[in-house]
């Protein structure tokens, strides 16, 4: 049963990394302390000393294991070296190939590798690279979206691919509560990965206005309006904020480079300006026109009614899944 844990953790619940710096030490430690898999997100540039500090700061807040995520599209070799030297429990990778040799290097350093992918073909590549677990991301997911298909059709096919392999399969995309958790288990997953639900927690570094929007709004859209210059070819799912609805048909030749500055922020200790249509979500340090900044969210965001402590999210999933299975399925009369 999925809630009994995967990869040595109490539960098969993964807090998806929230770029660029929204899943920091406080969120990751809160998730780890609740028995689930918290994932830090390293910067998109090489900065191994900073990565070490991030890991060490998290260790002052929890003595439980946790993970660190790297987006392979950006420079990362030195950062990964630091992650392996620090011997965190999990290295999570996404948005690129992670060959078998690198996977084995991580495993030999005592670090398990989880690869987040969006297609059956990429799941097969990850399987052949002998990863320790695979996250399959459906089209419903918030943030940058690898998945082109809905989870309902994709997940069981990937489960068939992995059957007999002992590699845990983790479902991501639009899962916000115990119903989604149980559905993912029924479709063949051993765990779930949630981004948006953990974004809407007390410990996440999302800006308070962003958190309010996650509670208030219930519509998202798959788009390429934001961050076209910095990260081309990376479609994303965002909240349909009034700003987004005004600009959803942004002409193809436009991108953030030529746009006015709408705010300022500090990301992983570096001060940055935010231009209109940048792909940078507002974090707790961001100032300026917050409502006109990108706000990533998964398709079922309408299920989020309150900002919770991250530990409550985990507790509700586990207790909710157990009682749902007891009430809805175990008592059912098969005749
Ligand atoms: C704000 C935000 C930032 C994200 N950043 C990353 C990231 O840096 N790396 C990554 O692999 N996935 C990232 N994701 C995607 C998650 O790993 C996960 O696939 C997704 O959140 C699942 O869908 P859900 O948001 O509906 O739960 C992000 C998602 C959100 C909402």
From TrEMBL:
Keywords: Flavoprotein, FMN, Oxidoreductase
MF terms in GO: nitronate monooxygenase activity
One Pfam family, short name: NMO
Ranges in a coiled coil: none
Species of provenance: Aristolochia fimbriata (White veined hardy Dutchman's pipe vine)
InterPro entries xref list: Aldolase_TIM (IPR013785), NMO (IPR004136)
Domain of life, source organism: Eukaryota
Protein name: 2-nitropropane dioxygenase
